[in-house]
Every structure is written in structure tokens, then in C-alpha cells.
């Protein structure tokens, strides 16, 4: 919840939010966290921005496929691949989910 609130706050301060969430150290994602990602994605799109997800563990990615959320989100295999897709003329906000933050989402 704390991470979701933090990201939502960042979205509200940006005119066209460009958000990248790196899942490199995340090995579990709760249904509440998936709901938070959907909300973050919707808020970002409402402002004409983009949310990109990168480095998702294959087991977590499987959840995105089963729920068809892989169709909703811009998901990239690597951080570099995701970064290359941004429009760098706008200010970007990068967020890295660390192990300790995973507990807040899980």
C-alpha cells in the first residue's frame, strides 16, 4: 500500500508520467499488488503517460498471462529494453522495487 501511495503521488506531480518499475528483486506478487498496479496504470494513462514493467520473474509473469494482464501492461524482459522505449523528452520517474518493499506490496 505504501508503494502504491508513493507512486500515485508521483503520478499526480508529473504532467505526463513515465514510470518504470523494475521487478528484478521481486519473487512474489499478491493480488492486492496486482490491483495496485492496475490502478497505477489507469492513473498514468489518464494523464497521457506510460507505465512499463521490467525484469519480471517467469513465475510472476505466468500470473500476468493467466489473468491476461500481460495484454494491459507494457512488459519488457530487461530494464534496458524498457528504458529504450520511453520518450526521453518527458521527465521520467524510475522506481525499483527492492526486497524490503516487496513485503509492503505482498
What does it look like?
This protein has helices at residues 2-13, 31-46, 58-66, 79-84, 99-105, and strands at 18-22, 50-54, 74-76, 92-96. The longest helix is centred in the middle third of the chain and has 16 residues, at 31-46. Helix 3 (58-66) links the parallel strand 2 and strand 3. It is α/β, with parallel strands linked by helices and 106 residues long. Helix 1 (2-13) runs parallel beside helix 2. Strands 3-2-1-4 form a 4-stranded parallel sheet.
Summarize the structure.
By secondary structure, the protein is α/β, with parallel strands linked by helices. It contains five helices and four strands, in the order αβαβαβαβα.
Distance between the termini: 9 Å
How would you sum up the global shape? globular
What proportion of the residues is helical, as a percent range? 40-55%
Number of strands: 4
How would you classify the quaternary structure?
Answer: single chain
pLDDT averaged residue by residue:
83
Spatial strand sequence of the major β-sheet:
3-2-1-4
The ordered string of helix (H) and strand (E) elements is HEHEHEHEH
Uncertain stretches of 5 or more adjacent residues: 89-104
Number of helices: 5
Biggest sheet architecture: 4 strands, parallel
Radius of gyration: 13 Å
Q: Which structural class fits the helix and strand makeup?
A: alpha/beta
Beta-strand residue percentage: 15-25%
Identify the notable features of this structure and list them briefly.
5 helices, 4-stranded parallel β-sheet, 106 residues, alpha/beta, disordered C terminus
